[in-house]
Task: inverse folding
C-alpha cells in the first residue's frame, strides 16, 4: 500500500484499503464497514481521538498562516471575528476528512509494520 494512494483515497472520502466504498453515508454518519471490502470503520471507543488532533492541528495551522501576516495590517477586532467564525465552521467541515485521514494513516502504518 502506497502512502500517497492512501491519502488520495482518504481525501476523496473513500475506503483507504480498496478506494471504492464510501466512508460517509450522510454528512456526519459513517457506515459500520466498507460496502466493497468490509473494512471495519466503527473501531473501539476512543479510536478517532487522533482524528480530533488532526482536525485541531490543521485548523490551527490555517489560522496562524492567515492571522500572523495580517496582524500588522488589519485592526485586531476586524481580524478576530472572521477568524473566530472560521475556527467554528472549518472543523465541522473538516471532520470527515480528519476521520478518513486518521483511519488511512493507521491502516498504512499497520500494513508496513506487519511486513
Result:
Amino acid at each position: 500500500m502506497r502512502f500517497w494512494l492512501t491519502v488520495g483515497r482518504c481525501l476523496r472520502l473513500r475506503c483507504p484499503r480498496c478506494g471504492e466504498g464510501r466512508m460517509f453515508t450522510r454528512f456526519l454518519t459513517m457506515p459500520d464497514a466498507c460496502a466493497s471490502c468490509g473494512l471495519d470503520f466503527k473501531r473501539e471507543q476512543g479510536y478517532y481521538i487522533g482524528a480530533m488532533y488532526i482536525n485541531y492541528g490543521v485548523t490551527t495551522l490555517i489560522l496562524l498562516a492567515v492571522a500572523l501576516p495580517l496582524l500588522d495590517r488589519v485592526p485586531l477586532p476586524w481580524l478576530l471575528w472572521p477568524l473566530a467564525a472560521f475556527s467554528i465552521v472549518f472543523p465541522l467541515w473538516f471532520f470527515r476528512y480528519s476521520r478518513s485521514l486518521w483511519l488511512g494513516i493507521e491502516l498504512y502504518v499497520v500494513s508496513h509494520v506487519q511486513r
Q: What stands out?
A: DSSP finds three helices and no strands in the chain. Helices lie at 3-11, 49-70, 76-113. The mean pLDDT is 93. The longest helix spans residues 76-113.
